[in-house]
Amino acid sequence: MNQSPPSFVGRRARSLRTARRGPARYSAFDLIRRGALGTDWPRSFSQPELRGTYDAVIIGAGVHGLATAYYLAANHGMTNVAVLDKAYIGGGGSGRNTAIVRSNYLTPEGVRFYDRSVKLYENLAVDLNYNVMFSQRGHLTLAHNDSSLRTMRWRAEVNKLQGIDSEVIDPDHISRLVPYLDVSPEARYPVLGALYHPPGGTIRHDAVNWGYARAAEHLGVHIHQYTEVTAIHVESDRVTGVSTNRGDIAAPVVVNCTAGWASTVCDLAGVRLPLITHPLQAAVTEPVKMFLRAVVVSGSLHVYVSQTDRGELVFGASVDPYPSYSMRGSLEFTEELAGHVLELMPSIAKLRVLRQWAGLCDMTPDYSPIMGVTPIDGFLLDVGWGTYGYKAGPVAGEAMAELVATGKTPEIISAFDLARFAEGRLVGEKGAAAVGH
Amino acid sequence: MIRIPCPHCSARNSAEFRHVGEAAARPDPSTVTPEQWRVYLYERSNPAGWITETWFHTMGCRRFITVERHTVTNEIRSVRPAGSSGPEPAEALSGRADAGSPDAGGQA
Amino acid sequence: MTGAASRRLPAQAGELVDRSRPLAFRWDGRSYVGLEGDTIVSALLACGVDVFSRSFKYSRSRGVLSASFVDPGCTVQVDDEPNVRGAHRRLAAGMDVRPQNVWPSLRFDVKTANGLVGRFLTAGFYYKTFIKPQRLWPAYQQVLSRFASGGVTSRQNAHGYYDKRYVHVDVVVAGAGPAGLAAAVAAADTGAGVLLVEEEYELGGHLRFSGEESLSTLSELRAQVAARPSIEVMTDAVVTGRYDDNWVAVLQRNVGGAIERLVKVRAGVLVAAPGLIERPYVFAGNDLPGVMLSTAVRRLVNLYAVKPGERAVVLTANADGDAAVADLTRVGVNVVRVLDGRAGETIRRATGRGRLQAVELEDGTVLPTDLLVTATGWTAPTSLINMAGDRPVWNPTAARFVPSGDGLPPTVLATGGLVGDGSTDELIAHGRAAGTLAGDRAQGRAGGGVPDLACEPHPGMFRASTHGFVDFSEDVSSKDVVAAAKEGYDSSELVKRFTTATMGPSQGKLETINTIAVLSEATGRAIEDLGTTVWRPPYAPISLGALAGRIFEPTRVSPMQGWHEGHGGVPLLAGQWIRPDHYGDAAQEARNVRENVGIIDVTPLGKLELSGPDVPRLLNLVYVNKWSKLAVGSVRYGVMCAEDGVVMDDGVTGRLDEDRYLMSTTSSGAATVWEWLENWLQTAHSDWRVHVTPVTTAYASINVAGPKSRELMQRVVEGVELSTEAFGYMQVRQGRIAGVDDCVMWRIGFTGELSYEMHVPASYGLHVWEALLQAGEDLGIRAFGVEAQRILRLEKGHLIVAQDTDGLTRAHSAGLGGMVKLDKDDFAGKPELAWHERYGLATAPRLVALQPVDATAVPPEASQIISSNGDILGRVTSSRMSPTLGHGVCLAQVDPAVAAAGTVVTIRLPGGGDIRATVQEDLAFVDPEGVRLRA
């Protein structure tokens, strides 16, 4: 039955009024002022009381759920909204990804979609008054054979036609951008060229999660952590609310914004999905002095690497070869990863892996998400994000907010509808998402 | 590195196998509707729990096997050759780490 | 080095240093001398150096804290290796050791200025600023990244040699303290094979520095281990992770011949005996050089004969702290004050400029001192058992987390300090019981129980009345944790992410408990409710080199590769295969095929032998066309689609005998198709009588093509009539070629010329190749490579799967709609293809041939075909200059609206600009009727 929630939840309930008075402005001036006076910063997020009814319930307080809530409030004035998460804010995929942002996809609809996200990310720090540290340091996807090079050119051409900065560059140019990369023809998988995307880069994912949460709360949205949905109520093919471990909520709209749990949540509403959940692992090394500016991806070698401002190298590869809900991680992941990374950059063999972790990815048959309506009225989806969900947070939130507020599916996400599978209308993104970053 | 208790080769590292997918009955192509066919092609139950799935022993006996595995703990409770009936309990096939070595009996 | 600055003590019982072997080395640009057996840090301390680094954010001087692997202030650069743990790494002669993260020097670092503005640079300060103006963020970032700590790496560094080892063993014991040693011995005595892994260079754990009696016990235990050959010992090695099914990773550092070795163990039973890690105390000045833990003192004095200071204040709350006092007194340190944590005594703060100069007590007393020792508690490193599923519980009486025992599989046991406290004998007894149980279980016996090991009460001392560092590597203070909690980052996960506490090189071993304790204070929630953050592997850092080992990337070559290399063949990497792309002039090679005869090595072609009476049923099932009436000696082209109707592979299949067929697939599809066939046979049609044998590498495959190829073949083939009537197009024969029996040859037409493709038993491949070249010399024979073949097939409009098709292309969109025989009962992809034919053709893309209007234009592959308003209508999939015709030839996937013959389309060139091209009637530019093929 209902589990008792952690004792802190509900203890510091704040009224709607109080929530609207925060948050304080963040700026260098305020930093200095508070530092000098020794005054505390006000809370970024509180623990409100759970209401018995909301205009919309969003399941999942990751970047998608939080962005949806924020845009509902900011763009549509809908503030009687609850975001529910069974753990802490940004504890799922949103806290485990390697935070790569780019828009150099293969299909025109994919490019339009992710480019909107990049544009939103570019202004996000100012919009949310929270430094999300978007570092547009350049993104390289290496090609090691002519088939791959052809695909890179395909992507570059589609990108250029949409006004996205993307081009295929040769090994000399690659070497100037990434001096540590082995571009010699003697390599086992020689680099023949790369898709270079200057506006791509990395972002501080925790900051994006917290920034959206803080801003959404400020506008009146309720974020309920440690609140797990245990049932979704449907009557005559229409959603009427949810049950949680803290009580029941009546709501005409329920949005599934989970990753890793999309199927299990949809099971509660009796909706079946074309998803398979696989772990996606990542690892980080000890810090060293900065030597890698760009984000480097190799599809053939199934690996991507970037260096954080703290000097750590962050690595990822493809999803685990069999589906699982385990986030325990495996040794073979780091072994294969290390092998491929050293094939790309042989001189960094002495760098040490400090930590590895995993998140869960919901993989769809066409490497594209599932967004929009379901056969259950009012039960909406923003799932199936595979290995490419974080970069889409803002645009997904903006589009889902529009859908919730207006009842109409925005054109920008129309290709990602659930019905496409039954109708045999899959999206053609397989080429771009090969290693998913 | 989990081990798959292959019915022919005993417990072997999962890296020797290829995961094929959730076991599903192929509908009769002559009578199936497009929607039903696409349910077969794309829909998955994807449970956080026990699943019946097919693995292929790529670097071993090269047989397809049907496995019951728990997707959270990766525990395996039965295996049988795919296309056959009657599951075999996994413990009978796990056993010692060196069960698959050349000098152990039962090598396929 | 001797003299006033020397801190070396006279000989200590159990010391590791060898005074007869001095070692010269360099530190921070100067020469020093240490002793064999010293660590880098103990050698420097003995020489009077006690500052080794500057901290990450505030650039505070740091010295020894724990004198162990995880000591946060002792990370140094050694030669080309960054982030060396100086308090663990043994000194070697000639080492060039340098401080990290200092600018311009260790003595004077400009980043100390950050300390002055520390109150403004609280944890997470960067989230609150650098927001505007946005365009300056990249510049801010450059500055922030200068603060990045860590050593340096260089492009010139060699990869180095690392290797791996597999071990299958009954019992792995992680940790060789008293309990671990006893466990290893006991397990061996049950008949089990044992691997004993110890992080330090010698066995013993804390027994090494705990006094004469301990040394004597240690000596006995060591002898017992040495007397049992079934115990393999690894020192300077650490168990870094326990993964599913007791897959255990061990990093072995000090292994001859390799820089490091990753040992992968499938352990019957894992016994975790890591001991306890001493926890720092939180107070103002707790990071000053001169402030250290009791275990640091005991190690320095007893193992390395180093005097840690002259005047000491000791805060002790346990027996080990008391023992440290005794050690200090014994070696002549003036212990001016001992405060007893068990009696509620504590200190207020430590003060000093760049190092410890005084300790201030709660009553205001100021004690000048150069050494402050704290012994305020222990942390259980529960990593390995966490990874095995245990969720530790907080024991408030003992003030530490202990294993709960729940969730552990029977194959993982814990012993020693990790579990509880006791005298050395009690720890040994517990270890012995655990080891016996481990050995029994690993050999399939039930085994007896393990007695309890209770925890002794310990005061819960985490923070004094002042604020200090909770994470030394990340420069996070308890004040930061309190502020974060107040701002709403008040769960253990959120506070960790916001402040970055526990995210440094020791990954929480010294930091987690203090962080949680301060969070507990700040939120009013008990430690047991807060829990800890998840311990993730690896337990100790592993180099990329060790993880990668010797990187094996096999390549595949045909038996003729040596010939290709010797004759100017430029290599092309195609999957795992290396094949010749061309021999200097692909266009000329192609022309020669059309005019004379060419020879190409096509060994990578996938080949499967199918035998049995039910082969036609299988062929009908996997190909879209019909195969029941394929006569003996005939060959047919087939296309395979997946169950969604998307083109999967193509090739030809010939019937050699009544029940024997040879199927060819694309090179990259060989493995996939083999598995596909086996899938159908094993899971859906186990009653069909078909055997599949992969023969891709059993045969060397050679293709001779061109108008003179029959003439050539007549000179080398025996036993087969080669006239057009006897051996026509799409026919297969078997016979002797160049004296080699059991060759298969068929007439197919990828290049569009009269050609014979031969499959020769592989060991004779080179012989037949050379025989053909010799026999055809006067016919103008020349080898041609993959590039020439691509040109030739493109001139003939023959598609390449996965180049002219993609992940969504159904048969009809590849010009193969006519092959799909929907009146067959069932075949892979039939339902989708049927619906596609009925409903999808109007909108599905089409494969067309394009000829650029400008004869010299050759648009690059993947160039987009666009409409007048810039919409994408398709793309060029194949494109070459045709040496036969003298103009560009292309294949393209286009929208059906522009697929009609004669349509003029616009191609956007990647370099800029547009060209026009005309859609052709036929896919083939050369000989569309196929007259030459059928010669």
Structural account:
The complex is a heterotrimer of chains A (437), B (108) and C (935). Chain A is built from twelve helices and 19 strands. In chain A, β9 and β10 form a beta hairpin. In chain A, α3 runs parallel beside α8 and α3 packs across α11. Chain B has one helix and seven strands, in the order βββαββββ. In chain C, a hairpin with a 6-residue loop joins β3 and β4. Chain C has 935 residues and is of the alpha+beta class. At the A-C interface, α2, α5, α6, α8 and α10 of A face β6, α3, α11, β28 and α14 of C.
CATH topology of the largest domain in chain A: D-Amino Acid Oxidase, Chain A, domain 2
Largest sheet, spatial ordering of strands of chain A: 5-6-4-14-15-16-13-17
Distance between the termini of chain C: 92 Å
Greatest interface and its residue counts? A-C, 101 and 99 residues
State the end-to-end distance of chain A.
Answer: 40 Å
Report Rg of chain A. Answer: 22 Å
Assigned CATH class of the largest domain in chain A: Alpha Beta
Mean pLDDT of chain C: 94
Quick gist of this model?
Chain A has three domains: 1-39, no CATH class; 52-96 and 205-275 and 366-431, FAD/NAD(P)-binding domain (3-Layer(bba) Sandwich); 101-204 and 276-362, 2-Layer Sandwich (D-Amino Acid Oxidase, Chain A, domain 2). Helix content of chain A is 30%, strand content 22%.
Describe the secondary structure blueprint for this structure.
The complex is a heterotrimer of chains A (437), B (108) and C (935).
Chain A: H1 16-21, H2 28-37, E1 56-59, H3 63-76, E2 81-84, H4 93-96, E3 100-101, H5 108-128, E4 139-143, H6 146-161, E5 167-169, H7 171-177, E6 193-197, E7 201-202, H8 205-218, E8 222-224, E9 229-235, E10 238-244, E11 247-250, E12 254-256, H9 262-269, E13 276-285, E14 295-298, E15 303-307, E16 313-317, H10 331-344, E17 352-363, E18 370-373, E19 379-383, H11 393-406, H12 419-422
Parallel strand pairs in A: 1-2, 1-12, 2-8, 4-14, 12-19
Antiparallel strand pairs in A: 3-7, 4-6, 5-6, 9-10, 10-11, 13-16, 13-17, 14-15, 15-16, 18-19
Chain B: E1 3-6, E2 10-13, E3 18-22, H1 34-42, E4 50-56, E5 64-70, E6 76-81, E7 88-89
Antiparallel strand pairs in B: 1-2, 3-4, 4-5, 5-6, 6-7
Chain C: E1 18-27, E2 30-36, H1 40-46, E3 53-54, E4 61-62, E5 75-78, E6 81-85, E7 96-99, H2 113-116, H3 137-146, E8 163-174, H4 178-189, E9 194-198, H5 212-226, E10 231-235, E11 237-243, E12 247-252, E13 261-272, E14 277-278, E15 291-293, H6 294-304, E16 311-316, H7 319-330, E17 334-340, E18 347-351, E19 358-361, E20 366-368, E21 371-375, E22 378-379, H8 383-387, E23 393-395, E24 400-402, E25 412-414, H9 424-442, E26 469-471, E27 476-477, H10 478-486, H11 492-499, H12 512-523, H13 527-530, E28 542-543, H14 544-548, H15 561-566, E29 570-574, E30 577-582, H16 586-595, E31 598-601, E32 606-611, H17 615-622, E33 635-641, E34 647-657, E35 660-665, H18 670-684, E36 691-694, E37 699-705, H19 709-716, E38 717-718, E39 732-737, E40 740-746, E41 755-761, H20 765-775, E42 782-783, H21 786-795, H22 830-840, E43 846-852, E44 864-866, E45 872-881, E46 888-894, E47 904-908, E48 914-919
Parallel strand pairs in C: 1-7, 8-9, 8-13, 9-10, 13-25, 15-21, 16-17, 16-21, 31-42
Antiparallel strand pairs in C: 1-2, 3-4, 5-6, 5-7, 11-12, 12-13, 14-22, 18-19, 19-20, 23-24, 26-27, 29-30, 31-37, 32-35, 32-36, 33-34, 34-35, 37-41, 38-39, 39-40, 40-41, 43-46, 43-48, 44-45, 44-47, 45-46, 47-48
